[in-house]
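Appendix B. Extra example for self-study. Work through it before the problem class; the solution is given directly after the inputs so you can check yourself.
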Amino acid sequence: MAIAYMSMPAINRRMLDRELKKGSAELIILSILEPRARHGYEISKLIETRSHGQLKFHIASLYPLLYRLEERGWLQGRWVEKAGQRRRRFYSLTAEGKKVLASQRSTWKAFVEAMGLITGVHHA
Amino acid sequence: MRNPSGGDWNDDLRVRLAGLRLSPAREAEIVEELSQHLDDRYEELRAAGSSDADARRLALEELSEAGGLTQRMQSLSQVNQPAPVVPGQLRPGVLRGLWQDVQYAARTARRQPAFAATIVATLAIATPRRSYRRSLWPHNSSPSRWRCSGRSGSCCSSRAPTSPT
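Solution. Structure tokens for the complete assembly:
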């Protein structure tokens, strides 16, 4: 019983982290790509550094998500070759992706404000 | 893509992607892209002090995180593509094979219309003639049997019409 009692909060936290990440993953990727096209590794490093290490998108979760957003027409992947370097696949937002980003930002903002009102947690 | 440890990410990636049945071109693209990511990750881990073996192991372990790359890609529409059609190689299933034959015939007719027209004309002329001959001479009394029955030889004796007793 003690083990179950002790381990439940850890499991719940992992599940909560996973669900939060899943719900916000699309918005994160679209936001990272808003200023300019980037390749997969750059996207993963930017997410990690901008979140101060709180969020990490490893290869197994990042690329399937990029491919899914590309299939939806929100992103466009393009191989770019530079002199003296191997070619890399850069992802950029499509017109549809920009619309979705604006919509998701608005929804997320409303959600965060509502959560703040309910829980008393406010942005620092 | 080779990593500095002398290993090859491509083999690991191909094994993981094999079950997804991507098109060969798409699979090659994904392998190239993920190999680059693993190269970068390997370099990062090495720069942070990991040994060669540890850096390689940790980079590969990330492919299995969060349910694993393969599982996360299952829902994509680019997976489970039909196998490429190889000329002369039948796919399992009679109807599939038949459909494959029809597609192949249609493609050939488009590419070589003169050849296709010759084949169709030959069949159009030959098939009614054969049917007409069969209608004139029923199976048990074809002219070839009549010719044969008049000569000596083993074939004639076995084929000679027998009279009812």
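Self-check: Chain A touches chain B through 17 residues (CB under 8 Å). If your reasoning did not lead you there, revisit section 3.
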